[in-house]
Amino acid sequence: MPRNPSTGVYSKPAGTTPSVGQVIDPAPWNALTTDLGNEITNSLPRDGSAPMAAPLKAASGTVSAPGVGFASNPQTGLYLKGGGLLGFTQNGVDVAFDKASAYAAKSGDYTALASDDSAVHRFTAAATLTLTAAATLGANWHYCIIADGGDVTIDPNGLETIDGAATLVLKDGYSVEIICSGAAFFTNKLFARIQSKAEVRPSAISSSGSPFPTTAAARTPMSIFPRAPLGRGQASLPAQRHSPSA
Predict the structure, then answer these.
(1) Taking residues 210-215, what's their average pLDDT?
(2) Residue spans per domain, the chain
(3) Residue 239 — very low, low, confident or very high, per pLDDT cuts 50/70/90?
(4) DSSP states of 77-102
(5) What helix, strand, coil percent values describe the chain, rounded to 5?
(6) What is the pLDDT of residues 37-46, one digit of tens each?
(7) Cβ distance 110 to 99 under 8 Å?
(8) CA-CA distances (angstroms) from residue 171 to 67, 100, 146, 175, 177?
(9) Which stretches of sequence are listed as region Disordered (predicted)?
(10) C-alpha closest to that of 184 among 120, 152, 114, 137
């Protein structure tokens, strides 16, 4: 009887447990030696001289005791997470890898879901983006949106906030990355920094409403090249005065 394929337990054929003085029946003993030879052949050699002939099945394991580990460090290796996901653990600590970004275009209102983790969505029209509850999305969930056709209003769930505010309006032509802490939402602040740089300071605007000086004195060009002293025998050219255009 060969090894049980489900449990891996080997059971020897019946009639192969002799007693003292018993005449050995060759039939069961021949079956036993044949089975033993087959199972030795089916065993994986430790020296790596032969590969697996079928998929290798490992225990599911846990983050602290992975199903595939190392003799020198059994807490580092691979294990099976919930939902059939592959997990990597290092010294008993889960190692997280970022998922590949998935692009999609949106033409109207949308609710960001847990499955949108690492996604990049381009909104081609003005829209409201509703965020699922932070506790549902979980810590480290992140999501990039591009406003390319109108302002996008980002509205967290219930009383939750984004950058400490109830909503965030992403202006047309800008993009922002949203990060979830598990309790609230934050952004990479890039949009706010770019927007602040794009705004003209009121003190820089003249009384005429132009951000550029309008008086002749203010518009008189200045030379960035200092005049060198004349040497002996050198003639001085008359200075040319350029009046600013009106």
Answers:
(1) 50
(2) 1-49, 58-93, 103-196
(3) very low
(4) EEEE-GGG-EEEEETTEEEP-PPPP-
(5) 15, 25, 60
(6) 888 888 888 8
(7) no
(8) 49, 26, 9, 8, 14
(9) 1-23, 225-246
(10) 137
